[in-house]
Amino acid sequence: MQVNIALKKTVDTSYDITIDAIPKMHFDTKVAIVTNPKVAGLHLGYLLSKITAKELYIITVPDGEEYKNQKSIDTILESLFNHRFNRKSMLIAFGGGVIGDMTGYAASIYQRGINFIQVPTTLLSQVDASVGGKTGMNNSYGKNLIGAFHQPQGVYIDPLFLTTLPSREFGAGVAEIIKMAVTFNKEFFNFLETADLNNASVLQEAIKQAVQTKANVVAQDEKEHGLRAALNYGHTFGHVIENETKYKTYLHGEAVAIGMVMANETAVSMGLMNKGEALRIKNLLEKYNLPTCYKIENTHNFYETFFLDKKSSDASITFIIPVGIGDVKITDAIEKDLVLSVLNQFGES
Ligand SMILES: NC(=O)c1ccc[n+]([C@@H]2O[C@H](COP(=O)([O-])OP(=O)(O)OC[C@H]3O[C@@H](n4cnc5c(N)ncnc54)[C@H](O)[C@@H]3O)[C@@H](O)[C@H]2O)c1
User: Fold this and answer.
1) Ligand 1 within 6 A of 38 CB?
2) Backbone angles phi, psi at 343, to 5 degrees
3) What's the CA-to-centroid distance between 79 and ligand 1, angstroms?
4) CA triplet 297, 329, 311: central angle to 5 degrees?
5) Is 39's C-beta closer than 6 angstroms to any atom of ligand 1?
6) 156 Cβ contact partners less than 8 Å away, ≥ 6 residues apart
7) Of the candidates 229, 341, 232, which has an alpha carbon nearest to the alpha carbon of residue 296?
8) CB 32 within 8 A of CB 92
9) Closest CA to 203 of 20, 15, 16
10) Which residue, among 35, 112, 40, has the nearest Cα to 75 in the 3D structure?
């Protein structure tokens, strides 16, 4: 015997991303703003001047990647239960990618899913983390291993927040902008080469283009069955660098910058990119003081650490390799010897 449960989905989960000063918003529901003490101290007053709601609560969790865990999720959920939030209630993620990922995840599981909106405050979260509905948290087995795809109702990217961002955090966001351009958008890359992202209106244009590029990718492959994985360009190598340096030396975007250079060298070895293109990308990264060198002490250990990446299986490693500038190839069929010879180049640096 067999019973069929018909689940053809026709739900439209499209949403708008606004890149401008946050508009005044009123919610006829209970709303909780989830943030951390640093962001609250700098910008909560501004956000509160824009938002009114039937009932409005602030939930604060500690600042930092090390708090992107179950304990913080419990803090959020308990507050929602205490204030009797229901399925019509709304969460607002107010902070960088850590807050955005955790708020989205809490929204995805509270009473099996409530609405949330993203108000990202770092450049990295404005151009990348807040867009596309990937939510989650870390555990002792690794980063982002627990999570859900849960799209926000909207994203409000206000460039004003970036005025207080430390310069290294700014650079880490620029690395992700460059990532979008190299993988999917050659004209955008050309624009970035001549642009000065320290200029506010140029930066706003770059944010728009990066977000548009990511939105196009997510629209084609929301759950990362294929194309969306290309946005992990630089990450396969970058994760090993983060792991080797115990997450202490580099910000994530900085490790990804080095990882992009390594992926480019792999592409050059495979004949998919010429040396001139690789140099243009390196120069652009260095223009924003991003690191592009890393001394690999032991190439074999470095290679083995690839297998810890959740994108890799036991037997193969998934690499995102650029094809020139503006195109990309996802492959798990690169010969180990070729990768080791690329890694050896970094061993000498
Ligand atoms: N969901 C996704 O698609 C996606 C994509 C990329 C990254 N991420 C996640 O994003 C996280 C990294 O995000 P991040 O780089 O924003 O880090 P973060 O959230 O830790 O923010 C970095 C630091 O900047 C502070 N900060 C935030 N806004 C500020 C402001 N306006 N002025 C001054 N300081 C400010 C934060 O409090 C924090 O100390 C990681 O956990 C990563 O896994 C998610």
Assistant:
1) yes
2) -60, -35
3) 23
4) 60
5) yes
6) 18, 22, 23, 117, 118, 119
7) 341
8) yes
9) 20
10) 35
Q: What is the DSSP letter of 164?
A: G
Contact 199, 269 (CB under 8 A): no
Helix or strand or coil: residue 118?
strand
Establish whether 214 is a catalytic residue. Answer: yes
Cα 120 to Cα 126: distance, rounded to the nearest angstrom: 5
Instruction: Please answer whether residues 349 and 293 qualify as being in contact, where contact means their C-beta atoms are separated by less than 8 angstroms.
Output: yes
Q: Are 149 and 113 in contact (CB under 8 A)?
A: no
Set 9, 112, 246, 248: catalytic member:
112
The phi-psi region of residue 64 (left if phi > 0; otherwise alpha if psi is between -120 and 50; otherwise beta) is left
Contact 91, 53 (CB under 8 A): no
**Cβ count within 10 A of residue 95:** 28
User: Hey, what are 243's tokens?
Assistant: 């792991």
Distances (CA, A) of 188 to 177, 194, 249, 292: 9, 10, 30, 21
pLDDT number for residue 141: 85
Q: What is the pLDDT of residue 311?
A: 61
What is the rounded CA–CA span in Å between residue 344 and residue 336? 12
Residues 217-236 have a mean pLDDT of 94
For residue 185, the one-letter residue type is N
Please give the structure tokens belonging to residue 290.
């991003």
pLDDT, tens digit, 9 for 90 and up, residues 276-298: 999 999 999 999 999 999 999 99
Instruction: Give yes or no for residue 65 CB within 6 A of ligand 1.
Output: yes
Q: Is 7 helix (H, G, I), strand (E, B) or coil?
A: coil
